[in-house]
Amino acid sequence: MLVQLNNIFKWVQSGGQRIFLLKDINLEVEEGEFISIMGPSGSGKSTLLNVIGMLDAFDEGEYNFLDESVHSLKEKDRSRLYKQYIGFVFQSYHLLDDLTVQENLEMPLLYKKMKSPERKAKVADILDRFNIVAKKDLFPAQLSGGQQQLVGVARALIANPKLILADEPTGNLNSTQSKEIMELFKQLNQEGVTIVQVTHSETNAAYGSRTINLLDGRRII
Amino acid sequence: MFKNHLKIAWRSLKKQPFFTFLNTFGLAIGIAGGLLISLYIYDELSYDRMFADADRIHRIHADIKFGGEDRKFAVTPAPMAEVAQNDFSEVELAMRFRTQGSLLLRKADTEANIKELQTTFVDSTFFKMFGLDLLAGDIKTALKSPNTLILTKSAAEKHFSINDAVGQTLILDNDDSYSVTGVIDDFPQNSFLRDHTVFMAMSGYEDSRIVNWGSNNYQTYIKLIPSANVEDIQEPLRDFLGRYVIPGVQQFMPGFTEEQFKAAGNHLIYSTMPLTDIHLRSDRVAEISRNNKLQSIYILSFIAIFLLVLACVNFMNLSTAHSLKRAKEVGIRKTLGSNRGELIRQFLIESGLVSMASLVLAVILAVILLPMFNDLADKNISMPYTNPFFWLILLASGVVLGLFSGGYPAFFMSKFIPVKVLKGTSSNSLGGGKVRNALVIFQFAISVFLIIGTLVVYQQLDYIQNKDLGFSKDQVLIVNDAFSLDNNANSFKEEVKKLSYVKNATLSSFFPTPSSRSDSTFAPEEGLTDQENALSMQRWGVDFDYVSTMDFEIIAGRDFNRDFKNDSTNIIVNESAVSVIGVSPEEAIGMRYTPDFGEDNPEFFTIIGVVKDFHFSPFRAEIESLSLHLSDRAYALAIKLESGNFSNAIAGIEGIWNQIAPGQPFDYYFMEDRFNDTYQSEQRLGRIFFIFTALSILIACLGLFGLAAFNAEKRTKEIGIRKVLGASVSQISYRLSMDFLKLVGVAILISLPLGWFAMNKWLEDFSYRIEIGVWVFAVAALLAIAISIITVSYQSIKAAIVNPIKSLRTE
Ligand SMILES: Nc1ncnc2c1ncn2[C@@H]1O[C@H](COP(=O)(O)OP(=O)(O)O)[C@@H](O)[C@H]1O
Ligand SMILES: [Mg+2]
Q1: Looking at this predicted complex, what is its ipTM?
Q2: What is the mean pLDDT of residues B174-198?
Q3: Does any CB of chain B come closer than 8 Å to the CB of residue A65?
């Protein structure tokens, strides 16, 4: 079992009142799954994804990741888990504007303190695999949206994570670009990477093996 | 439109209270500092200008190189005034001061004395020279006859009311009767006579009528006629050497010629200096009051300008940084049809508002800080509230500062191109970063420079304080006015010596403090009339216990001793004297010198001992030749105390004093305090350096703090991404802090050589000085780095611990 959420609650306090962002969420993700999260805007999809990605804390419930209980881990250990196993893909790509494609890709490896030769090899590898070798010295502003997201996925993947979390990865892309990214996800999934994506599109959701629906912070399917 | 601008300006300032505060506060500190220093400088420049015809009054000086000493005197011979008046048609009036230091005064029929610290004989032309009026008395007769005096208002009021002062009799030093012939107003704090309270008629002072060109004791002032040019009398003044001085000396040394005098490398040059220049430009032997140095005015002006520029730089930096956040506003305004001029006006109104607020805050700060500043600078400055020019200048400088510091940001912001800023291009590409970096470097370069200055000044002061002086200044209490005890002085000394906490005591008028001088010229027994052998030496009268009380070290020969019958014809000299003579200390023993080589039967003194050089004049000067003679006449008793409870000792000594001399004021000081007073101007400079260094660092830190906050904000998104990619808090805060530390590093590299150069220049003034150590630079650099790390890291850490999902949320 990769991810196991038991009775997760998350709330914010507002004017003496609790506003629930997540209510009693139960979810199990096996290794190799490809899950789509759907729901109307504001229903808590991003919040759930951030909780799974350990970027956000929750207030009640249990979270086990690869049999380690995330809720009782120290910040340092959580950070180690996260760096080792999780990669993020964002709707607005979030590439660093001042760095080239190559440097952007290198970033997660730097933070994992990987040695230079190994780093270079990995970057070269992934550039090759994603067919963007020609773009390696360009800055994000010089790329199209689809190309930027391609780099975003490549960056999420470079440290060989077990789990990729993608929050509306095609939200800013046209349909051709969307299809390209989804095909890529599908291929990655077949290679063994677990994927959880948030999406508004039924077509995209169909790439997944199953779909979870949220409404007002509650899981309805 | 203006009202609209004002409204918007107010709102946008209110929306950013933190930046508005940093901006206002930083600028206010700069203005307040500049304001205080300006008031100080204004006061320093105003010295002695209040006298009518001040621009026509000059003092005559003498530069004399003779007998192994090269000195610049503020005093000239007694006959100088009369000769100058007679010889020069340019001179309208001449007058002299012969200062007497402190005197005890009492009313004729009373017992209790009151001490006046600064008294002087003056010629009766005193009133006309300085345009003085009498509050009481007749100006036509005042100070004309011998044994008359005039008092300042505050001195007179100690004895009688102003109206019945005239005609009263005062006893001076329990001896001479003087009748009061007038009362004048107190002299202002910014005049050279500020401390003088008693002025006695010169006509009663014998020495003033003797035509003696050999001794210099009279402060001589001349007033020129309006059409005269002071340059015209310099050449004839120099001719006084051949005309008066040489013939005067020839009376007792017939072979003495000007050629011989000059051939021996000697000189005697008379010159003049305008009265209004004296306070800042004169540092001579026997000044009538303590002067300041022009150098310290320059230093302070620099500091004031530094502070203002620093504050403006801060303003520019914070404003341009802040403006990046307003890029969108500029873009929208432009698409709505606003032109560049209008935008510039808008931003200038904002900076105008801030600078006006700073101005108000600055005046408040200055008013609060003024008492402290007065203390620091040893001044009595007040805010010139009633002077309209003060307010005008203040307002004008507020406007200038507003335009100066608001100009660049306004220009910078109005340049934004709408399509670019509205597309949400990253703020880096909007530019201005290089200018901001340069300004930060500039600020820190100044701060590091000032830190170096402070360290060097303090180190030099410390060196002076702890240098081996050749005598021990600690635990020496000096009781003044021992002469008022007359014949009881010795029994006072003996009684005091019996006290358990007294180690030793000595009666003398001369102590190793700067005010002690008695210049004399000696000639050796062999080659008596050969002026090449002349030796200029201080002549100090002392008693048998002097050398042991002062802890002088005898390096050859012996101390005075009661068992030797004729020690009164013997002298002890210092090392400097021996080296001027050109022999070794041992060889000097037995040599005979006389101070009255002009007379028929000169009295010779035999050198019986040589003491190690000790510092009796400030460290700025070389140690002069000096001789100790036995003498009965003593002004004060110096008492060496055991360490311990001084107040106990003082009480015990005062008890003895009151028994022997009831009614006489008991006046004492510690030698160490007097010694420290000598370095007042250095100490003041040190303190001022310290305070303004702290201020400039504070301003620089305010700016850095603001910039760091801005920088962190600008990079929120980047920080968020990095964190998602696995960066730790420390990695991110290190990265953010390094951006600024690099700038501080460059600033340090720039300021180190400048500081080294400037402070060596300052140290050149001291004959005994430190070498600037490498550690000074290391400390300055480390301090700057540490301060900037502290300043920046708060913002950096704050930015680094923010949860990335906050900064990366897609709107
Ligand atoms: N820190 C927070 N404080 C208050 N409300 C929040 C916070 N984070 C998210 N929300 C609210 O929670 C709801 C769910 O947000 P989100 O998970 O981003 O929705 P989705 O991604 O499904 O559009 C929204 O109404 C949002 O406004
Ligand atoms: Mg969302």
Answers
A1: 0.81
A2: 94
A3: no
